[in-house]
Amino acid sequence: MRNADGVRNLRKIIDDEQNLFIIVSAMGKTTNALEKVFEGVQKGDKDLALENVAALREYHAGIINDLWHGPKRLEKVDALICGGIGGGAQMALSDVGIRLYGGVSGNADAAAEALAAGELDFNPNVRCDHHDHHGEGHSCGSHGCDHHSCG
Fold first, then answer.
1. Cα distance between residue 112 and residue 104, in whole Å
2. How far is CA 115 from the centre of its chain?
């Protein structure tokens, strides 16, 4: 899903389903955007890294605005709850002050509520290892290459 229309379409598809389990990976090239953040960090260019974080925040804010019919300001992103995440993205997030809560699965709303209550079960040592085995230019964004594990 890359935008609000994709989220709406998913809802239409699953609206009458019961006992449904859905896994949603990074939206709309989010992994690529995090790699750009990391690239700025690698080059020692904190401004570039922060610019890419701002662009990612703006992208997701646009989807939220579209879904909730109006602007909802994201003042600051200070935490990320996810399943697996590569080491480069972890370092990039850390370098711009975003706390990582990895290895989380299940309902996103429940995870956010658990984090707010200080009860989130997460893995501080989570590592998604599939970004290192294919070489430059490969993307397993569909997570269908059967050569890795996340979490």
1. 11
2. 16
The three state secondary structure string of 1-26 is: CCCHHHHHHHHHHHCCCCCCCCCCCC
Residues 6+ apart with CB under 8 A from 149: 84, 128, 129, 130
131 contacts: CB under 8 Å, gap ≥ 6: 86, 88
CB neighbourhood size of 20 (10 A): 8
Specify the 3-state DSSP secondary structure of 114: helix
* Span 40-66, pLDDT tens digits: 888 999 899 999 988 988 888 888 888
Residue-wise pLDDT for 82-131, tens only, equals 888 888 888 888 888 888 999 998 888 888 889 889 999 999 888 776 54
Residue in the block written with tokens 């569909």: 142
Shortest CA distance to 107 belongs to which of 98, 120, 117?
A: 120
Residues 129, 147 contacting (CB under 8 angstroms):
no
Bridge partners (DSSP) listed for residue 81 = 101
Q: Token pair 């972890």 is at which residue? A: 90
Distance between CA 71 and CA 68 in Å, rounded?
8
